[in-house]
Amino acid sequence: MSEYINRFLSSLVFLTRIPVKIPFKYEAKVENVFYFPFVGIIIGSVLVLVAYLSSLIFPSNISSIITVLALVVITGGLHLDGLSDSFDGLLSYRDKEKIILIMKDSRVGAMGLLAVVFIILFKVALIEMVIESGKYIMILTMPVIGRMSLVMACYKGKTISKSIMGEPFIGKLSKRYYYGIILFYGAIISLIMYVSYGLIYGLSLIFTVFILHFIVINLKKFSYEKIDGISGDILGAICEISETLHIPVFYTGVFLCNLFI
User: Fold this and answer.
1) pTM for the whole thing?
2) Looking at the 3D structure of the chain, how many domains does it have?
3) Rounded to whole angstroms, how far apart are CA atoms 243 and 215?
4) Are 36 and 148 in contact (CB under 8 A)?
5) How far apart are the C-alpha atoms of 129 and 131, rounded to whole Å?
6) 26-56, pLDDT tens digit by residue?
7) By the 8 A CB rule, do 50 and 66 touch?
């Protein structure tokens, strides 16, 4: 089997619960990070199909719930679990060791539950808005942006432990490899937006990637202040937050572009 296909399948298994019937050797290598946004494209394509087909039968509010449910099923709730653990730990106002223990605890606390509930509510509301507008490509770009945020978080990151899930990727990306990934996928989804909806939407997608880059930097900085690094749970939280903020930030870009172009 091609080395590239093996890396892609390893990324697919790592980030989703999509069954892979092709025999391959799972390897957690830094080179796999290139395929994270591509996995996002696959997830987004499935979500667009689910959203469109369900909207033919149900009103937009029900269709949006079905779409978010499909996202949770595809990912196995992996990043939602990280979001919950991260909020329970980082917002507990304890010392570093206690925060890490709280994040490792399988039980869900109040802050973690609230974080998950609000993220899901926001996603349902935002996807409902997208379905009503008929601009389904926006749903496609959500998971792509989320997985690009994982790449951003891994670049120049430091881990809290050598045993965490993201350890093979965090802090291992070279500058050239990192910017190559961001520019490559940023160009692809910007081009898709441009072809689908025009120049302003293409530019707004570039604006979104730019702003989310700084959001990820500050989320990492907050984690460093609390636990001197990032973990797999933090990566999951960053993915969920970026995925959710994508649409509001994007439409802010549309608003600004309309003002100045």
Assistant:
1) 0.93
2) 1
3) 12
4) yes
5) 6
6) 788 888 999 999 999 999 999 999 999 999 9
7) yes
